[in-house]
Amino acid sequence: MRRFLAVGLLATLTLSACGQAGDTPQEPGTGTESSASATTDSTDRTFDVSGVTKVDDIAALLPEEVASKGTLIVGASTDYAPAEFRADDLKTAIGYDVDLSKALGNVLGLEAEVQDAEFASLIPAIGSKFDVGISSFTIRPDRLEAVNMISYINVGSSYAVKAGNPDLFDPEDVCGKSIAVQTGTDQETALGDFSTACTDAGNDAIDILSYARQSDATTNVVGGKAAAFYADSPVAGYASAPTGGQLEVVGGVRDSAPQGIVVAKDDAALTDAMQQAMQHLMDDGTWEAILDAWGVEGALTTAELNPQG
C-alpha cells in the first residue's frame, strides 16, 4: 500500500496540477474514479473527470482574457487533505477541490492549473496571480466584502488528537490547552473567541499554535507539541490516513457552514461563468460523485452567489 508519508506533511514544494477535457467525448457526469482510487491506496481517491466535456453556452460567458489564454489558474493551499493536498510524489496536487477545479475547467473548455500558495495569501491574489480560488474558503461577511463567493459544499469543524487521545483532550473544555490551527482559517478565529471566553471566566487562555500550513499543525499534534488541531471536519476526519492512523477525531462536527469558490469582486463575467459551470456539475451529478469518491459529504445542490447568513 502506498502511503502519504508523515515527512511529506512538512514539504513546502511549489506545484501545479493540470486537467483538461478528455480526447473521447462523453456525456457530462460520466467521470469515474481513477485507477489509483480503485487500488488499496488510502490517500489518493482521485475522481477521473475526463468524461466532463465543454458546455459551449457556459464557456461563452468567459471574459476574453481568460478564454484566450486557454487556462484557468486556480489558487489553493495544497496541504489540506482531502480537499487539496500533495500526492505521494509530493508534487502533484490532488483532492476533491482539485478534481472540482479540473471538472470546472472542462466545462469551460479550459485547462485548470492549480497553483500552490499559503492560505492567508490566496484571497489578496485573486484577480491578479490567480483567476479563482478553490481552497476550502468558508463564506463569511468579511470575505464577501472583498470578493465574490459561489457556494458548493457545506462543511463543519472538528478537533483531531493523537490516536487513543492520550492527553484526554475534551472539546468542551479547551481552556489552557495547546491547540494547533492553520493561519487565516475560521477555526483560528474561533479559537481566539474561545480563548477570550476562557479568560473572561477566569480560566487559562488557550495556547493557540498557528501555522501557515495545515500540514505543520497536523505534524505538531503527531509530535506531541499540541494536544489537538482544529480544522474543517473533512480534514480532521481524513487525518488518520496520511499519518498512518496516528490521529483520530474527537467531539464530532460542529458549526457547519458553506464554503465557496472565490472570484474577484469586479469580474462579473468570470463570476457568472464559474457559477453556471458549478451549477452544471451539481445538476449532472459530477460534483456529488467527486465527493463520494473521497468519502466526503456535504455537496450543495445550488451554486449560490454571495449567500448571506
UniProtKB/TrEMBL annotation:
Keywords: Signal. Residues 71-298 form the Solute-binding protein family 3/N-terminal domain. Residues 1-21 form the signal peptide. Pfam families: SBP_bac_3. It comes from the Bacteria. Residues 19-45 are annotated as: Disordered. InterPro entries: Solute-binding_3/MltF_N. This is Polar amino acid transport system substrate-binding protein. Residues 29-41 have a biased composition (Low complexity).
